[in-house]
Write a structure and sequence with these properties.
It is built from 12 helices and 11 strands. It is of the alpha+beta class.
Length: about 325
């Protein structure tokens, strides 16, 4: 099994089963990030993994006998990309350790961990779990704010957890059913719900000063998202809308390792990329889609898209729609 290509818009479902812990370690490392797996069964290990990559998000379901998982500093140094992983435990119990915290994982609970820092997972019982891995920039909370909720179990007593878990469990019940235009929308809905869940949890668990900072960043991002179609969207207008200075706005984005303009551009290009790949938008001219996302100048848009995606908008759309047709036929 080769490394999961998380930059592709979608792949066919994958399935793997083994009674070798070494084979499981290879598959887990190639499907997610490099990991070390230890058997806790005295030689009776068994693991089954099914999954589907859609829109850069890897949804998976795993049923595994007792085992441990370790993400070490050396493995992190060897990783090319870093992600968040969210685990929904359906059966069994587990323990997650990261950032000097220890979370008890119970059926119905959701836990998040960051592949950019070491973590350990211990499952003393056989488990049935849904694991979702996605690029860190797909959700609203910054890495600093996510750090406040790593190795914390978000249980079914929390309202948003109860909203999110049925969808994640249903997605993982039949990856083959995720095909066609509907699958892309399901993925976006799932990621948006995860983002809301983690944002709310971070707000509730950060210190007061950090909480105000996170709330401000969420307001800024919400304002930008709501006005991405406005070609006049700029830092000065954003700062006025959220009642801060432009200088403060730029400083906030520098803390996240980016700029206001770069973040706006990334959100616009990602939105355009999604619509170009969606068969439900196949009838719309590329120029109309670009204009709706704040790019009324066709030549400027084409240059920007090629620079960030690596291909022309027309070529990207053609390849994405052909792939969608193959998936629908298969």
């Amino acid at each position: 099994m080769t490394a999961t290509p998380l930059t592709r818009p979608g792949t066919a479902p994958v399935a793997f089963a083994t009674e070798s812990v070494l084979a499981w370690q290879r598959v887990a490392s190639s499907s997610f990030v490099p990991l070390v797996v230890d058997d806790l069964t005295d030689g009776r290990f068994a693991g089954r993994l099914s999954g589907r990559l859609l829109e850069g998000v890897f949804f998976s379901r795993m049923r595994v006998t007792p085992h441990e998982v370790h993400r070490t500093p050396a493995l992190i140094d060897a990783s090319q990309r870093l992600f968040y992983k969210v685990t929904l435990l359906l059966e069994g119990t587990g323990e997650l350790v990261q950032d000097d915290r220890r979370a008890l994982m119970l059926p119905g609970s959701v836990s998040v961990y960051d592949t950019a820092r070491p973590y350990d997972l211990r499952f003393a019982d056989p488990i049935d779990a849904v694991v979702i891995m996605f690029p860190r920039d797909l959700i609203d909370p910054s890495p600093d704010h996510v750090r406040a909720i790593t190795a914390i179990s978000l249980g079914p007593e929390e309202y948003l957890t109860r909203l999110v878990t049925p969808l994640l469990a249903e997605i993982s019940s039949d990856f083959g059913a995720l095909r066609g235009p509907a699958s892309l929308r399901v993925v976006r809905t799932a990621v948006e719900l995860i983002s809301v869940l983690l944002s709310t949890a971070a707000l509730a668990r950060t210190a007061e000063g950090d909480r105000e900072h996170l709330a401000l960043m969420l307001r800024i991002r919400e304002h930008i998202t709501a006005h991405l179609g406005d070609p006049e969207l700029n830092p000065e207008g954003i700062a006025r809308a959220v009642h801060i200075s432009t200088r403060h706005l730029h400083a906030l984005f520098r803390q996240q390792g980016t700029t206001v303009s770069a973040w706006i551009r990334e959100q616009r290009i990602e939105g355009i990329r999604r619509e170009l790949a969606d068969p439900l938008h196949a009838h719309r001219p590329i120029a109309a889609i670009a204009t709706a996302w704040g790019y009324p100048d066709a030549s400027h848009f084409s240059r920007t898209f090629r620079q960030h995606v690596g291909t022309a908008p027309s070529a990207f759309r053609r390849a994405a729609l052909e792939q969608a047709q193959r998936e629908a036929a298969g």
